[in-house]
C-alpha cells in the first residue's frame, strides 16, 4: 500500500523533517521512498496519510534499519494498539524487506554473560537467527565494545556479573568491574539510547535488591528457551529504548557575606 509519510527527528545536535511515500507497508515497518538521505540507526516519528484525507496515523518511534539511494527501511518500535490494528487491517503482517527484497531482521546484539557455557548457548541461538553477536564476559569488555562498535541494537545483560572481591580496583582505569544494573547506566551514558534486556535466575526480591524492578525493566527469567529469548527480544524492541538524560547543572554555592 502506497501512502504519503512525513517523518521527523530531533536530537541535541540537529532537528529535521522530511516526507516520502511508503513501499511494502505492514504492521512491522516499511520502505520509504524519499529525496532525504538518512543514516541507519536514526530514530524517527512517522505520520502516514491516506489518499484524499488529512487524518494522520502516527508511529511514535521508528528506527532506520538500512538506506540505499532514494530508499530507506524503517522498523516500527513503538506505536499504540490502535495504530497497530490499523496497519494489520490495511496490509497483511510480514517481516520488513530490505532494498533487494530480502528479509531484513538482522540485529547487532551485545550479550554480557560471565558464564562461558551460557554465553555459547545464547550466541548460537542468536547467530542461527541471522543476528550479529558481540560477546562480553563482563562489564569492562562490554564498555569497550560500546565505545568501539558503530551499532548495537540491543544489549542482553546478566544482572549479576563476576566482580573480583580481592582484586584492588585501579582508580585510573577507564572502566571497572560492576554488576548488570550499574553497567546499563554506564552503557546508556555512552550510547545515549539503547534497548536493554536483563536476564537472571534471581527471584523478585533479589532483583529489587540489585536495582531491577520488574515491569519497569525488560527482564527474562533464567532458565529460558530459545523461543522465550527471541520473543523477549522482539517485545523489548517494541518498547522505547533507554535514553540518557543529562544530570541537572549544579549551582555554585551562594556567597554569604558577614557583617
TrEMBL record:
What Pfam family is a match for this entry? PilZ
| One BP term from GO | phosphorelay signal transduction system
Q: Which UniProt keywords apply?
A: Phosphoprotein
Q: Name one GO molecular function term.
A: cyclic-di-GMP binding
In the record, which positions carry 4-aspartylphosphate?
Answer: 158
**Gene3D superfamilies in the record:** 3.40.50.2300
* Domain Response regulatory intervals: 108-237
InterPro entries registered for this protein in UniProt: Bact_response_regulator (IPR050595), CheY-like_superfamily (IPR011006), PilZ_domain (IPR009875), Sig_transdc_resp-reg_receiver (IPR001789)
Domain of life the protein comes from? Bacteria
What's the name of the protein?
A: Response regulatory domain-containing protein
